[in-house]
Fold this protein.
Amino acid sequence: PMISDTGSFQPEAGIFSVLLSISTFLAFSLMVVRYYLVKLLDTEERVRILNKFIMAIGVIVCLGVLMVASFESYSYSTAHNVGAITMFIGGTVYFILQTVVTKRIGEQRSLLCLRIFLNVANIIAIVCFGIFDLIAKSKKPALAEIPPDCPFRLSYNKNSAWSGSWRPCLNGYEFRVLSSVSEWLMVACFGCYFLTFLPEFRRVALSLSININASDSYWLAAHQIAAG
């Protein structure tokens, strides 16, 4: 199935939304750590500017993922598709630019080659997804043309066009499968790219520091007196 199909009906939709929201938080956390890692390096001005631009794209991508999680593909197709396009296209740009930064800061050649490979594989998957999805939709039968013995879950969008889980008995099914495989490959490339951050993150020590403003020191003193 398409990724969106796994969360288009209840109760799967609720689980899909929760898991995708958690994934968004984790991805955003990795983006923030990556941003500060590059920021702390003694890099040239162009890399620092590019790093800020990449982080801004990362925020937009995360918002796109949240849109996908919040709006079901069949009930709110426009909002869902906008979020999906933002996620996949924005994510592709994000990782391509991260690869540029990898080369500029002089990371290991093996790591650079791996990231280039993942970018190329992701772009190929996007192209294949677009081609196969268009072919599948062009062959999609009208509701009246669906064989009566063809079982599938049916729903309607606001344009009264049918939507549902495709079955082998439906025309265009094989292209739908190929587009689904391409979409899952895109997500796999994204996940693998995030994993390539691990060797760099081993150099980072994270800490949380909470301090009281100097202007509020009287508040702290008053609490210390009260506690004493």
Summary: The longest helix spans residues 109-138.
